[in-house]
């Protein structure tokens, strides 16, 4: 697992811009978060946020975050496209990172949770237009949901197992870093 993550961090998607993976749309959907880092940032922040909750709240929070992603995919399959995808996605993981940094309990902040899911859904809307029409698009969306669920599950499982003290503070620091990245991306996207 560690070698795989090291390879992901070193490998540049831009270097393979002209390559052909020859994978089915299902497997391309599973690996979509590897190629689009804004998804990975949101999923890591969302998984960390789920890991900070009680079990019942973590399940509701995780299902609503993944539901926002599914809503974006369905909206694009129906022909609805987001206006500013980069800003929406950055706003989504910025809010998720802030929620992790503040260690917000989802039981008391459901409006914020719904806002994060909606921001992420609107931000990723345009990216799903890369999927092909018909059965190809459905396979891509199903694969993407499998990849999202796997990454969020493993991050949440790791966050739940952290002992109290410095590891929990480190988790909040990771959330603040993700929020800072989101703020910078929002600022640069508004400046351009």
Structure, briefly:
With 192 residues, the chain is an all-alpha fold.
Global shape: globular
What is the rounded Rg?
Answer: 16 Å
Task: Report the strand count.
Answer: 0
Mean pLDDT: 77
List keywords for this structure.
mainly alpha, 192 residues, 9 helices, globular
Task: Characterise the protein shown here.
Helices cover 74% and strands 0% of the residues. The protein has one domain (33-191). The protein is mostly helical. It has nine helices and no strands. The model has no long low-confidence stretch (mean pLDDT 77). The protein is globular. Helix 5 (55-77) runs parallel beside helix 7, helix 5 (55-77) runs antiparallel to helix 8 and helix 6 (85-102) packs antiparallel against helix 9 (166-191).
